[in-house]
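step: validate -> pass
step: tokenize input -> pass
step: predict -> running
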Amino acid sequence: MIGGQLTSATPLEDRMFRSAWVLNNDVIQVDVEKAKPIAYKKIEEWRTAQKELPFTVDGIGEFSADAESKTNVDGASQAALMASVTSQPFSIDWSLHDDTIVTLDGTQMMAVGQSLLAHINAAHVAARVKFAEVEAATTMAEIEAVLGGLN
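step: predict -> pass
step: emit ->
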């Protein structure tokens, strides 16, 4: 993109903004305001991917964070909490992200649940920053800089 204008050298990925293209004096340009909802969608996709990355619990290891693993962590964390409230023992063998098996007590399992929550929250916090940067953008270069920082 040169000066907000699409050229034949424009990378294919810039064509994600095709629905924001406008013709202005025989030059195709990207309407920044029409491009913002497209950028928001990319940020949402990035946020979802971030939430599914493995997370680490200090002193224990790396845990999976796919949808099934999150459900399992939630259930086991709640069971650990219930055991704690009723002064019952709690122990569970857990498969880490690398398939190593660890035995967790109630305190450790609750720490895993809290770490998962912090992991998910961090993805949301980072996405909100990116949403705000896109909202404040006045040029395509600014929007592209935000999207270029998604990793």
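step: describe -> Strands lie at 21-24, 27-30, 55-57, 61-63, 91-95, 101-105.
step: cleanup -> pass
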